[in-house]
Design goal:
Helix content: under 10%
Number of helices: 0
Largest sheet: 7 strands, mixed
Number of strands: 11
Strand content: over 45%
Shape: globular
Length: 117
């Protein structure tokens, strides 16, 4: 059973940076597309970024040029480097793992990011 554990959330001022980490266990990491999603209060969960096992990435338009997703296959960990943070980036951020060829999503418990002055 896949388990995902996020860390790295917190509070930061606008313009600041945070790096989120998500550690994967319970299956073969390189068989999964990894992603980060976020959910702000009163809003639906939305895609932030995804990365394949070969490093192909996809980003939401709202974070392009500011956020970078990466993965370390040796450590079974995916990262989200968030720079130039804005108040509208405030949300709970969730790690996602989806095995290739399936539509089954695995989720972490979420980590809170607050951007405020």
């Amino acid at each position: 059973q896949v388990q995902l554990v996020e860390s790295g959330g917190g509070s930061v001022q606008p313009g600041g940076s945070l790096r989120l980490s998500c550690t994967f266990s319970g299956s073969i990491f390189v068989s999964y597309v990894m992603g980060w999603y976020r959910q702000a209060p009163g809003k639906q969960r939305e895609l932030v970024a995804t990365i394949t096992n070969r490093g192909l990435t996809n980003y939401a338009d709202s974070v392009k040029g500011r956020f970078t997703i990466s993965r370390d296959n040796a450590k079974s960990t995916v990262y989200l480097q968030m720079n130039s943070l804005k108040p509208e980036d405030t949300a709970d951020y969730y790690c996602n793992a989806r095995r290739f060829g399936t539509t089954t999503d695995n989720w972490g418990q979420g980590t809170q990011v607050t951007v405020s002055s």
